[in-house]
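Q: Could you predict the 3D structure of Polycystin cation channel PKD1/PKD2 domain-containing protein?
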Amino acid sequence: IKRPFAMTILFFDWLFLLMLICFFRKIVNGYIVMDLNFRDYCLHYFTVICCCFHFLNRESFKASSMINISSKLFWSNIKTFWSFVDISAVIITLLATLGNIFWGEWLQTHYEDLWRIILAVATGLLWMKLISFLKVVNRALATFVLSIIQIARDILWFLLILLIMIIAFTQMFYTVLPPAVLNKDGDFGDNLDIWEYYLQIYIIVLGEFDRQTFANTFSVVLFFFYSFGVVIIMLNVLIAIVGDSYEKSMVRSENLFVIARIMVIGELVAMEKLLKPSHDESDETCTDQIKNTSSRWVS
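A: Sure. Here are the predicted structure tokens for Polycystin cation channel PKD1/PKD2 domain-containing protein:
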């Protein structure tokens, strides 16, 4: 990855990604302040579209390089979370930019809330794409980024139990403290429904609650069991699970770092051979090593 060709490609990827994020946010900010004059934002639109096409081209090179290494590796890579982030970030950003160019005023008038959500999702995906790029920089960063995915997998069953407990206590509180009792002072407005109860019960997990909310004895008892079972026990279990998962990730840090880099190395080697084909034995040796290593990981 330290070869001049690879360093050049990675440098321009880094540069184009930063430009894409900055100029896309300029466009979004213009949409927010109702200033979508194409003449004023012509440079921004042009830069974002060029960067999007650059990354779409890079994704096509990545696909061809993975197929060149191993078809099994290609299918295993295309199904990963980070591949979804890389591809969807570029596509949604490109569509959002084109939407602002051709239908900006119409979208503001008819689908403003939905379009703001799409712009927000595109922004989030772009920043996640930046994280995906950073994970190949060094071992510590790769371990940290990939351990987050491992932690998310390990806490799935915990989240299921937590969700069940929140639903159960919310329905019990809704029964004991109906809207007529809970909102007798009008603190929650005119539209107090079951979803507001779910939100309030979740806020208790974060440590925020009002003693005056629990208007009768049984609601206080429910609050005691809820705070003890969810806030104290479940959150400590969560800390233990996260700590154990991160410790396992640290043990596997070298493998995680190599896994993060193998895709980039294979892509760059295939791209270099495609753009300037040669019969250098070192290239053939590198490609063979990638094939052998990737086949072991995929299997």
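Q: Anything worth pointing out?
A: The CA atoms of residues 15 and 168 lie 50 Å apart.
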